[in-house]
Amino acid sequence: MNIRMLLSAAIVLVLAISSLPLLDPKYFLSWKPRVSTVADLIVRNGVIYTSDDSLLFADSMAVGNGRVLRVGNYSFVQELADYRTKELDLGGKIVVPGFIDSHVHFIYGGLQMAQVELRGVNKKEDFIKRIKDAVKSSKQGSWILGGGWNNDLWGGDLPSASWIDDFTQNNPVWLSRMDGHMGLANSVALKLAGVTKYSKDPPGGTIMRTASGEPTGLLIDSAKKLVGSQIPEDSVDDRREALLRASNLALSRGVTTVVDVGRYLPGGSSDLSWVDFSDVYQWADTLLKMKVRVCLFFPMETWSHLADLIKRTGLALSQWLYLGGVKAFADGSLGSNSALFYEPYVDDPENHGLLVTDAEVLLNLTLKSDLSGLQVAIHAIGDRANDLILDMYSLVASTNGMRDRRFRIEHAQQLASGTPGRFGKQGVIASVQPDHILDDAESAGRKLGKDRAEKESYLFKSLLDGNALVAMGSDWPVADINPLSGIKTALTRRPPTWEKSWIPSECISLEDALKGYTIAAARASFLEKQVGSLSPGKFADFVILSADSWEEFAEEASASVEATYVSGVQAYP
């Protein structure tokens, strides 16, 4: 070919390209990155549960470029192998999709791992000892922070500042209850915050008091900000280390994706989620330090900030980081007697709980968030709070018109008669935490009465029977981040010291529980095209379990995590 012919061909090509509208999106919608047809890894000789109804079980899987290429029998999968392909013989072990924890406070949990650990403490004396030990190793004047205590474990008596004042005269102390809706301050911290017998309860919060009106040290929901505002902010380095700690823990439990609802709690600052986004998540993503995939929810009062960001960036910032939606609170928690009920608490007859956010304010924020296209998630635990949010969601949907909005209720814990069926009819997702049963099975009857507790507590089976999408998680650090434990609890509803199930009619099947931590959890956050099942084209996130047969695993989900893979690469151990 001579020079003249080459020039002529080039001119024709330039003219053809120039005739296309510049960067018209329609010319790019069908473009897909070139995918290798050669597998990097073949996983074989196992029981692979895919969470994909088109092929629920297989014995082999091919992985390439971080994604699932094929799932099926070995001969079918092996067609994609060449001399570069590695093979992993499972020896009959079970493989499941990487677990998705649908509700965590990820950085908050990572920070708490470095504080005084009070989870599981079942004696008043041990509670006091742990604080006393922390004082001995702390500098005078420094804050002593901790969390995870559950007064129900030592009989129900609430702690007070008087328990710890004698040996904390030189240190302010703040200790969060396991649910995050109540905390204990010592007298030094109360003095710094200016909390006295004359202080008024803030809207949506309570200062617990003695019979004479003196503060006991316990602050509930929005009242926590009185002390919280005095605690020095965690440094950027501390928060980055917290992310890495949390990620390593998650991977050890088989969790490859989390929905992080942030450090924002009633009484906290709505800025925390945003500074964590910029200081921690974007830093980790940019420097390739992310280890698990994270879908972020932000305080609903900042909806316009998130809507503007999504317009600029889209929902997926990378394969690791996703912008989920906005979250708000309707009520408090059962353990703190601040969940909102129709009937009063049996152990507190004058108390129906708290409406943490004004109903009109919550409605207006939800209308605006939904109209902007954001996914909305609202915390509701008490029966009245859940009905209130379902009513509100119905009003918002009819006002703003039809779309795939996937409203969520976080916890959906106590449901009145007829309420479970409303979730399916309205298309509202129930984001639940099975392991909370282990904490509430004993205490719910004392707080609500046995009959009421057994009619409306953790109605997973009723929700599924009503065709609700049920996504599962831990609420870590409220409960441990441990899907296998959550699956076992959902199957058995039996606390460790119990011989019988609590409300056995609400036990669910192994498959429903697995889907709650995989494909249902993915759909609950619009992530089903990327994760949630071992389907061709999705990320090759999977977990190898210790069980040698499906029958063994089905026996109360008895297994442990042997290895966790993210994008086809071993991430744990």
From TrEMBL:
- Which regions span the lipid bilayer? none
- Lineage, top-rank taxon, reads Eukaryota
- Per UniProt, which keywords does this protein have? Signal
* GO molecular function annotation: hydrolase activity, acting on carbon-nitrogen (but not peptide) bonds
Question: For this UniProt entry, which residues form the secretion signal?
Answer: 1-16
- For the keyword Signal, the answer is yes
The name this protein carries in UniProt is Amidohydrolase 3 domain-containing protein
Q: Which organism is it from?
A: Acacia crassicarpa (northern wattle)
